[in-house]
# Entry
Amino acid sequence: MARGRKFNSNGERSKQLLLEKAIELFSDKGYHHTKISDIVKAANVTQPTFYLYFKSKDALYNDLNVQFQSGFFEVMNSKSSDSVANGLEAFISILEQKLSNLFFYIIENPKLSKIGFIESKQAFLVKSQLTQQLIHLIYLHDCDKDLQHYRVDIKILIDSLVGSMERLILTNLLEQKRLPAELANDIVQLYFWKTEEMIQKSSHQS
# Structure
């Protein structure tokens, strides 16, 4: 809170309004085409009020990215009841659950997600962290050997998956063509049905 203002004071409400209007403007117009004066006008506050809470446009934009990342990784890091199970089946089940939860978060925060996951410079780091977390999930469930059926490096596989997520979030999720759970299932089926099928055939033959 800025300069001793109390929570729920008029000042705090002004700060929240600035954040809300900034999300709309950055998402719709982009960072470079949004001016502080645009945000101030949309929030119906004075320019000095803006500087009570934010040093610059960049500082406000950074706050929005932090806000997105906090919610995004809170969802991603949430524990699953099957989190200790091993094998490809457990990994796929938990992956689908996590993707579904992430997509629910994105659909509940569409404009903030467009900034934090797609448009900002920090979005690259978010997706890199997501890739590392999904790779960690593979090793956590001891299914890296199963995924060798793809004959491709696991990092390339997961990088491709995360890249597909970005595109499908834009073209399907935010366009409301697919529900979060449906899109999560689509991605899992697209990337892992072949490995599941091969393992099932192998188990039947042994």
Q: What stands out?
A: Confidence is low (pLDDT under 50) at residues 1-8, 202-206. The chain is about 75% helix and 0% strand. The CA atoms of residues 73 and 130 lie 9 Å apart. The two ends are 64 Å apart (CA to CA).
